[in-house]
Amino acid sequence: MKKITLEEQPLIKIENRKGLYHRNIIDKSMGAKNFTFHYAKMEEGGHGVAHSHPENEHFLFVISGELELRNEQESHRVPAGSGIFVFPGEVHEVINVNKGPTEYFVMYSPPRE
């Protein structure tokens, strides 16, 4: 077993995203073989860029605030207490539509490199 405390994990600025930070909770460096799990915080007005994860299933669960996820065909609002599953290879973009920061957990399987 390995006990993890969120506050002990460094908050990392994601360079190619506006206002996005994350903390690795579980990843390959900690011995995970089947998934990656991290905490993310997106500042008000923050957003990603359209991208995909060709080999990874991807699940986002919002714990405070509200996100909007878009792909080429649809757009979904994801408020606190709900999540969204993104299929491998699906192009998507994440936008913080909340007045203030939005916090969420992200899981990938298999683990991200």
Describe this structure in words.
This protein has 113 residues and is mainly beta. It has one domain (9-108): Jelly Rolls. It has no helices and nine strands. The protein has strands spanning 12-13, 18-26, 36-47, 57-64, 66-70, 75-79, 83-86, 93-96, 102-109. The strands form two sheets. Strands 1-2-3-9-4-7 form a six-stranded antiparallel sheet, with no helix packed on it. A three-stranded antiparallel sheet has the order 6-5-8, with no helix packed on it. A hairpin with a 4-residue loop joins β5 (66-70) and β6 (75-79). Pfam families: Cupin_2 (PF07883). Residues 40-108 form the Cupin type-2 domain. Keywords: Metal-binding. This is Cupin domain-containing protein. One of its GO terms (molecular function) is metal ion binding.
Number of domains: 1
Structural class: mainly beta
Order of helices and strands: EEEEEEEEE
What percentage of amino acids are in beta strands? Answer: over 45%
Fourth-level CATH superfamily: Jelly Rolls
Globular, elongated, flat, extended or rod-shaped: what is the shape?
Answer: globular
* Spatial separation of the terminal alpha carbons: 22 Å
Largest sheet: 6 strands, antiparallel
In DSSP terms (H or I, runs of 4 or more residues), the helix count works out at 0
Strand order of the largest sheet: 1-2-3-9-4-7
**CATH class categorisation:** Mainly Beta
